[in-house]
Amino acid sequence: MAELWLRSRRAAVPAIPAPVHSDEEVRAHFALVIAGCEVWVLDGAEGAVVALLVLRPGWVDQLYVDPARTGQGLGSALLDLAKSRGGGALDLRTFERNVGARRFYERHGFAEVATTAGDNEEGHPTSVTGGPHQCDACWRPGGST
Fold first, then answer.
1. Looking at the structure, do residues 16 and 64 belong to the same domain, yes or no?
2. Residue 94 shares a structural domain with residue 135
3. 25, 93, 103, 123: most buried, per Cβ within 10 A?
4. Rounded to the nearest 5°, which phi and psi values hold at 109?
5. Coil, helix or strand for 139?
6. Which residue segment(s) compose the domain that 99 sits in?
7. Residue 108 shares a structural domain with residue 76
8. What is residue 121's three-state secondary structure?
9. What pLDDT shows up at residue 29?
10. What's the confidence (pLDDT) of residue 108?
11. What is the rounded average pLDDT of the residues 79-101?
12. How far is CA 87 from the centre of its chain?
């Protein structure tokens, strides 16, 4: 999972900031993610993870697709799964300058309701789906709060 995250993040630069942690730190982080979150993966024919969904209650924490597999419906399938398991509002964050991700979530019925000024490790503004009770910038299906 960490390898997919690393490939995806690097391929998305400059639409998103480069990772601020070393590869080893990312791998250690994913060991914690696996233990503390609901994790779903899609495997390719070769057995490698090609798409990743990490859920926390009410949040899409991470959704990444292998750069070689984008546009094949994998992200859509995982987002549909997240919606079915969300039990109501489902929040998520995207980097404000990540136009591709923002369009993807809009196509799936999400709408921006606020933004942040860059209060993250990368120091870049984000857009998030969800209510301002949880974050400064939120996306939520249909834009409801």
1. yes
2. yes
3. 93
4. 90, 10
5. strand
6. 89-145
7. no
8. coil
9. 83
10. 86
11. 81
12. 18
Lowest model confidence (mean pLDDT) among 22-31, 35-44, 65-74, 127-136: 127-136
- Give the single-character DSSP code of 91: E
Look up residue 95 and give its two tokens. 């980097």
Judgement on whether residues 58 and 107 belong to the same structural domain of the protein: no
Q: Give the pLDDT of residue 16.
A: 75
In tens, the pLDDT along 37-71 reads 899 999 988 888 999 999 988 888 889 999 999 99
Q: What's the pTM?
A: 0.78
What is the distance between the alpha carbons of residues 129 and 107, in angstroms, rounded to a whole number? 13
User: For the stretch 81-105, what's the b/e string if a residue is b when 16 or more beta carbons lie within 10 angstroms of its beta carbon?
Assistant: ebeeebeebbbbbbbbebeebbebb
First to last CA, the chain: 32
Shared-domain flag, residues 132 and 99 = yes
State how many domains the chain has. Answer: 2
Secondary structure class of 82 (helix, strand, coil): helix
